[in-house]
Structures are given as C-alpha cells and as structure tokens.
Design goal:
The protein has 263 residues and is of the alpha/beta class. Helices cover 42% and strands 18% of the residues. Helix 1 runs parallel beside helix 5 and helix 2 packs parallel to helix 10. The protein is globular. The N and C termini lie far apart (46 Å).
Length: 263
C-alpha cells in the first residue's frame, strides 16, 4: 500500500501501471464491461458526438476498455491518469480516432471548465482522502446540463466486500491501495455539496468480491483453472440482467449526477 505522501501516492500508481498484470480476458472482466455498457446505455443512451471524459485510464490499460467502447459508439474520448505507464498503455490501444489523453490527477484536472458532455468516473475518487476536491473538479469540467456517472465502492455491499478489502489491506495483500467505501447517502451528499443534482442511483458488479478476486487470480496465475469461476460469474451476470433492482447493490455503487444548466 502506498505511503501517505503525494510522492508516495504517485509512485504507487506508477508501479501499478508498470507492473500490475492485465485483467483483460477474465470472465469477471467481461461481466464488468457488460455492467458498464448497461450503465452507460441506460443513463446516456446516445453517445455519438458527445465528448466523454474518464477520470482514470486503469480500465483502458488493464481492465474493460470502456472508454474505447464509448468511442466505438461515436463518442469523442478523453481521459487522464496519474500514472505515465497507465496513460501510455491506454494510448497504445487501437482507437477509431485519436483520444485526448493527458497525464493528470482527478483532483486537478488539466482541462478547461465546462469541457465535457459526459464524465465517467468509476472507482477513482475513493483512492485518496480529499475526494471532495475530486468531486468539485469533476463538476467544474462538466458542461452545464451534462451528466456525470460517478461510482465508488459500496459500503452496503451485501457480500461485505469493504470488510474483505480492509482485512486484505491490513495483511498487505490488496493491490489497489487506499480505498474508501460510501453509502448511497454519503455519495449523494458529497456530490450535492459541490453543486450536482442527483437523478438516479445504480451500480455495477453484483457479485461477491472474493469471486471476482479468485477469478482474476486464476486468470493471471493459473489460467488452466479459469473454468472453475466461469460458471459462477455467469450466474451473477444473469441475475444482474434479470433483476435490475439488484444493480444498486453491486460492489461499485454509482450516482447519476447532472450539472444544472446556467440561467
């Protein structure tokens, strides 16, 4: 886990970008992407022509490539990451059109105010204590009338993932650094405090955290055993689609936030 200094924080994520294994191709990553696509299609059904900004590029470098998917739907993609290695890996993907990728921190976004139609921030702001500054920056760079989909770990996850993460962090076995979880009320209050109007609450990854982690462990370390988790992952994916009410109980919970139009 990274130390508390800004230098330590940056060095930690640079190491993650350079050395963390790719999670692409795992069954639970395919489920993750399916959830993200469903979330975007539900709350921003028309992506063509929209400027879409992502607050980190972890997914593009290591996981679902959701920003690249949005670009394939006609969106104009933009993104930042604090890690040069992660930003470089994201830039190296095959894009329909060159994305606007920059090195940067969500607490100090290197773009002008009122720049983007849609902002997608899934699992970013919880990794440092000044998440309120990050929320204010997301509000600043979103266009009036624009939508932000902001997701964080769900403190009320029925499978108790926050407790598991705490235990793994204490044991030095959690590879994603500091991570704060939120209740829906806490996230809503945070976003409203910086000026957002909340229009919905949803989520992704209704699945036990241990199953996602086991699936990734097998995928990256013992690939010939991946079949063990493929069926259980597909079971939870089917629940996610058959029972939409379960979505807000995923281990990543998201608020749909609108920046009020200027009068």
């Amino acid at each position: 886990m990274e130390d508390g200094s800004e230098t330590g924080y940056s060095a930690f994520w640079e190491d993650v970008g350079a050395n963390f294994p790719s999670l692409k191709g795992a069954a639970s990553t395919a489920y993750y992407l399916d959830c993200e696509r469903t979330l975007l299609q539900t709350f921003s059904p028309t992506l063509a022509g929209k400027s879409v900004f992502k607050t980190d590029l972890w997914d593009e470098a290591k996981n679902t490539e959701i920003l690249r998917w949005a670009a394939s739907q006609g969106a104009r993609p933009f993104g930042i990451d604090i890690s040069f290695a992660t930003a470089r890996q994201a830039s190296a993907l095959v894009w329909n059109d060159a994305p606007g990728i920059a090195l940067g921190d969500v607490r100090c976004v290197p773009f002008r105010s009122d720049s983007f139609d849609l902002i997608y921030s899934m699992g970013t702001i919880e990794h440092f204590p000044d998440y309120d500054i990050a929320a204010a920056e997301i509000f600043r760079v979103l266009k009036p009338g624009g939508t932000a989909i902001i997701g964080v770990p769900n403190k009320l996850d029925p499978f108790l993932r926050p407790a598991m993460v705490t235990a793994l962090n204490v044991a030095g076995l959690y590879g994603y650094g500091r991570e704060k979880s939120f209740t829906p009320w806490e996230l809503r209050h945070l976003l409203e405090s910086v000026g957002f109007r909340i229009t919905g609450i949803s989520g992704i990854l209704f699945i036990p955290g241990w199953l996602r982690m086991l699936d990734l462990l097998l995928h990256t370390r013992v690939a010939w055993l991946e079949w063990l988790t493929r069926g259980p992952v597909r079971f939870f994916a089917s629940l996610y689609h058959q029972f939409p009410a379960l979505r807000r109980h995923g281990y990543l919970m998201a608020c749909i936030a609108i920046k009020p139009s200027e009068s």
